[in-house]
Write a structure and sequence with these properties.
UDP-glucosyltransferase activity, two-stranded parallel sheet, Rossmann fold, three-stranded parallel sheet, mainly alpha, glycosyltransferase, UDP_glycos_trans_CS
């Protein structure tokens, strides 16, 4: 049985963190230890910590994601697109880059990247893996305020954040849900 948890293999863990390094941008990565490794430090490529010292941190513990996403210095959120992360990213001001790992995350990614056009999905290779270059390119594309992609996802994201943030949106959803439950028991 396949695990329903987003834990990367060591090679994909390394591609992810090397992709962040390749952007040249400052970063904080909060990530579970890759399969087969005792710690994140053990999985880091040789020389990585020295190369990103002062601009990059890889952390293996739990973080308060909503607080981080609200911080004014955070410009981009790279996510697996689990349900909680999906909503937290939509309600943030961050640009969104998606790297789904399992089926529900893939479906959420399709909604955000293709239907709502508020995010960019990292391109994958034929073996379903992604490269450091594909991650770096996705991040740079949304962070470039002059790029067509960056402008489009930023504008669409702002529009959907406003719609989803209206009090009547949530109360309307709850009211319809309760009404549908009542209709089911009739």
């Amino acid at each position: 049985m396949r695990e329903c948890e987003s834990i990367l293999e060591k090679d994909q863990f390394q591609e992810l963190i090397l992709g962040f390094e390749l952007t040249g941008l400052p970063f904080l990565i909060s990530l579970k230890t890759p399969r087969g490794c005792a710690s994140n430090e053990e999985a880091l490529p040789e020389g990585f910590e020295e190369r990103v010292k002062g601009r990059g941190v890889v952390y293996g513990g739990w973080v308060q994601q909503p607080l981080i996403l609200k911080h004014p210095t955070v410009g981009c959120f790279v996510s697996h697109c689990g349900a909680g992360s999906m909503w937290e990213s939509l309600m943030s001001d961050c640009q969104i880059v998606l790297v789904p790992q399992i089926i529900d995350q893939v479906l959420n990614t399709r909604q955000l990247a293709e239907e709502l056009e508020v995010a960019v999905e990292v391109k994958r290779e034929e073996n379903s893996g992604f490269t450091k270059e594909s991650l770096s390119n996705a991040i740079k594309s949304v962070m470039d305020s002059d790029s067509e992609v960056g402008v489009k996802v930023k504008n669409n994201h702002a529009k959907w954040k406003e719609i989803l943030g209206k009090p009547e949106f949530m109360s309307g959803c709850v009211d319809r849900f309760v009404q549908n439950l009542h209709d089911l028991v009739k």
